[in-house]
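Lab channel / #folding
Pinned by the channel admin:
"Please post every new chain as: sequence first, then the structure tokens as a reply. Keep commentary short and put observations after the output so the thread stays searchable."

First post following the new format, from NK:
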Amino acid sequence: MGKVFGFMLALAVWTKAFAFTDVSAEEFAKLMKEKDVFILDVRTPEEFDKDGHIKNSNLIPIQLFEYIDLRGLKGKKVLVYCRSGNRSATASRFLEDMGLTKVYNLKGGIIEWKSKGFPVEYGFWLKKGD
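Reply from TO:
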């Protein structure tokens, strides 16, 4: 019984050490203000453009993850979001498989973000002077 309990405890600690963290819109906003943060939107370009996006987001649709190596983000806090939080949870697991350890998933996605009154930007292209 002791060996099984010890194994289960070690597994729980190991899983938590390498698991991404789900955060609320409020926590996400606080994390955005910290140093070495990379904000990642994993939706489609159409969603990014039409439904709005969080300022300073980097658009990398989840469909491209199997073709892109994001290990260069190690050491940064990676804040991930999508429309509702499902694709971003999947993306967060991909990032962990790449060895990233500071991954934060926006629970409820941009729907939750907007419902809490946080700002979004619209449009895909930078305006002249940006």
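NK: Helices lie at 2-17, 25-32, 45-50, 86-97, 109-115.
TO: also worth noting, The two ends are 63 Å apart (CA to CA).
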